[in-house]
Amino acid sequence: MTKQRIVILGGGESGVGTALLAKAKGYEVFVSDKGKIKENYKKVLIHNEIEWEDEAHTVAKVLNANIVMKSPGIPDTAPLIKQIRDNGIPIVSEIEFASNFTKATIVGITGSNGKTTTATLTHYILKQELNVGLAGNIGDSFAKQILDKDFENYVLEISSFQLDDIKTFKPKIAVLLNVTPDHLDRYDYKFENYIASKFRIAENHTKEDYLIYDADDEVITEWLKKHPVQSTLLPFSITKKMEKGTYLDEENMIIAIDNNHIHMPTTNLALEGKHNIKNAMAASTVAHLLKIRKQTIRESLESFQGVEHRLEQVLKINKVQYINDSKATNVNATYFALESMDAPTVWIVGGVDKGNNYEELFPFVNEKVKAIICLGVDNEKLLNTFGAMVDTIVETERMSDAVKMAYKLAESGDNVLLSPACASFDLFENYEDRGRQFKDAVRNL
User: Fold this and answer.
1) EC number(s) in its UniProt entry (predicted)?
2) Full-prediction pTM beyond 0.90?
3) For the chain, how many structural domains are there in total?
4) Which residues are annotated as a binding site?
5) Residue 442: its pLDDT value, please?
């Protein structure tokens, strides 16, 4: 029997992980990256005798594949992707490919915001009592973990791009946190295309599977009315009582599943802010479904320290608190950040605008923001939008300059908040690089 040939487009974490798993499962493997493959990944490919190329795609070598796994960063509109589809070659995501080689119980978490925090928190709770891996859009690749450890359970943080290329993938428990306009440049600027993409997390569900979702999110509830899913639904809400699901009763979170009610106090949650109560509700519902003890859930919620680059308190200098929220790559994430500010704030914002509408931020900017520092190659939209709202708005193109300017503008008792509401690729490698540069600049003040 001839070997199946898999071509992997993109030599990053998910690409190399898939290459290793595919080779172990008897595939002929070829990795092709239009950009430069990082040295550490090249070494892994060479060591495992996997054929690769970078800085170009050899089309003939790509089109003789039986199956193609593409990095989530490559858009469907790329000419090579169109050629692959025209040739009738199936394209899958790493999540789809890898899930065929594990019998683990999978928890899939998606949403425009909060998915890293919720996935990390869910994993943190589950690992107290279960054998569980954390993968997807976070940490080591899912494929590589299946090859190396094959955990009995996985928590996967899944982006809409990863969901676009699934066919049969089905998490036992799916979590949909929220849907707000994001990445519309990849969805023909149609919000409904992006919503449909998020809901693919439940498209292969049966009644045996669960969909946990935010019942306060109108986009989600309206979509479900028109496009019902087969899943057993477990909504969560901080505004209304749920017959089945999770809700807030004054200071208590109540999880109601199968006539079994669990009460959890929210007063001692380690993470602050309304949005984190929702993230805790989603994670706790998952934990309860997977039979984690109530006390373990409670203790985990009280000790979990949060995620780097997400409302991360960096340092206090001259009674000014510096906060790194570099992971806020869209307006809705920045909404939560500004909402949680309890002191006058110098706000550092900007980057690659993905078709942002800043209107929902206006009340917070009027109420809490004393100065704005624009940090991007093109700040025109920010200047036009916020120029009349604050006394001081300045432009910078380097993180060190932005932080020095913030230091000058902030007074005792203020906050300096990096919450860009935009992607980072104009001036930085990624949001982590942006967050690290912010922290370094703060420490160098």
Assistant:
1) 6.3.2.9
2) no
3) 3
4) 111-117
5) 96
